[in-house]
Amino acid sequence: MTKPALDVLVVGGGIAGPTFAFWLHKLLPTAHITILERSPAPRLSGQAVDIRAAAVPIVERMGLIDMVKKYATTEQGIDFIGIDGKVAGSFPKSGDMEAQSFTSEFEILRGDFAKILYESTKSLPNISYIFDETITSITQTQTEKVEVTFKNHHPTQTYDLVVGADGQSSLTRRLIFNKNPKNKQEHLRRLGQYSAYFTLPSILSDTPFAAWYNAPHGRLILLRPDQYGTRRCYLGVTDSNLSRFDEIDDIMHNKGVEEQKKWFAKEFEGAGWQSERMVKGMMESDDFYMQEIAQVKMERWSEGRVVLVGDAAYCPSPISGVGTGAALVGSYILAGELSLHPDNISLALAQYEKHTRPFVESVQHLIPGAPQVANPQTETGIKVFNTVAWVLSHPFVTKFGGAMKKFYGWVSPAFGGTKWEVPVYGEGK
Ligand SMILES: Cc1cc2nc3c(=O)[nH]c(=O)nc-3n(C[C@H](O)[C@H](O)[C@H](O)COP(=O)(O)OP(=O)(O)OC[C@H]3O[C@@H](n4cnc5c(N)ncnc54)[C@H](O)[C@@H]3O)c2cc1C
Ligand SMILES: *[C@@H]1O[C@H](CO)[C@@H](O)[C@H](O)[C@H]1NC(C)=O
Ligand SMILES: *[C@@H]1O[C@H](CO)[C@@H](O)[C@H](O)[C@H]1NC(C)=O
Ligand SMILES: *[C@@H]1O[C@H](CO)[C@@H](O)[C@H](O)[C@H]1NC(C)=O
């Protein structure tokens, strides 16, 4: 008996989409996979992302760990900068695979990682990419097929399975799971932070450490080194009063990059430290990207023959430090379960959810009060936060490694606390 050749459409060519395609091709080579990406080329912007704990063996099994090491950012740790512009606390890399600190041992720019994944899938037989295209409707037919219509040049097509890997504001999710497909906030747990990412030139005083600087009114500058001699900047605005974001939320969804930059420039007026450098760098940058910091929470990740993976289904938010890890774990398990049950898709989708949920639940657990606790509104709040950073980074405290291990485990279980085993599919079994 030959297994049926599955026809799969993957919406989104970021991290989850290509990873899923890689694994499905490896474990079920007869499957035909089309990856749809709305931008004209792979999107390569962003800061460093971490590959930690459970995700490491998956990247190893893909044969990509040496490549990830080759592209590793040069970050040696993180400094917390006080209001006076001086270093208030310094955290070097832990060098310990079991208990990684704020700077993970596998730090790679999101764009470099997305490129590695694209390069390692684009020429595989039975995988094809379509850029500059998106979906407009998804209809499940009685014959257990899914009919998809496209926005640009492609004619209506029928698939056995549609995988939504289209990120935090997933259109696939809105079309299938929303009460109102236009509502981008349905299924979001809003965390009260809006952020901007961009690249800017280095200056002489930059160090191999990342710099974290809080300014009053919930403003954060996080400046990180990369291996290209430039810096990756993250600007965050945090407020538990969500009305502060009405304007930027509207701009983000309905206006262009120039208006988005202007909002951040206005917010960072008079923020102190190197804020003027950041704003200038942002205005001149050509890779600006912004997003709302939020988690995606869903009761189910599949409906019939449409399934979500990565940020689309369970974005843990960048402040969890494991957005990429969750996308890797979920895509791997989805591909693995489909390869075990190619003739019973609903069983495969149920098994994917059963195995992935406990992991997702552990990584979606954030430090109590995050992100507000790390982004105080007042100068006094910032001083308290900096004092905590100073105490924790004191040699006397770091010497008792166990205490730090506990602290990192408390910040996020993904930093080494959880002992969650990744299932093994295929030849490794
Ligand atoms: C440009 C960019 C920069 C980022 N920078 C950072 C960062 O610095 N730090 C961090 O922690 N996280 C960052 N993220 C988020 C991070 O990539 C994800 O949390 C994580 O890697 C999960 O990946 P994903 O594939 O599920 O989602 P994403 O990486 O968001 O990928 C989704 C992909 O789907 C595409 N897409 C979206 N809608 C459609 C549609 N309707 N049709 C077709 N394609 C669509 C997008 O263009 C994108 O390529 C960034 C995401 C993007 C897109
Ligand atoms: C591609 O798919 C076809 C049919 O589904 C299959 O016969 C073929 O072996 C696949 N190619 C590779 C290289 O796996
Ligand atoms: C929340 O923010 C809005 C807009 O910035 C402001 O008008 C309102 O007074 C704030 N509410 C509280 C309770 O601070
Ligand atoms: C798929 O698996 C489920 C659960 O094991 C089973 O109840 C169902 O009959 C199976 N469907 C098919 C078409 O084999």
TrEMBL record:
<dbReference type="InterPro" id="IPR002938">
    <property type="entry name" value="FAD-bd"/>
</dbReference>
<keyword id="KW-0274">FAD</keyword>
<protein>
    <recommendedName>
        <fullName>FAD-binding domain-containing protein</fullName>
    </recommendedName>
</protein>
<keyword id="KW-0285">Flavoprotein</keyword>
<keyword id="KW-0560">Oxidoreductase</keyword>
<dbReference type="GO" id="GO:0016491">
    <property type="term" value="F:oxidoreductase activity"/>
</dbReference>
<dbReference type="Pfam" id="PF01494">
    <property type="entry name" value="FAD_binding_3"/>
</dbReference>
<dbReference type="GO" id="GO:0071949">
    <property type="term" value="F:FAD binding"/>
</dbReference>
<dbReference type="InterPro" id="IPR036188">
    <property type="entry name" value="FAD/NAD-bd_sf"/>
</dbReference>
<feature type="domain" description="FAD-binding">
    <location>
        <begin position="6"/>
        <end position="363"/>
    </location>
</feature>
<dbReference type="InterPro" id="IPR051704">
    <property type="entry name" value="FAD_aromatic-hydroxylase"/>
</dbReference>
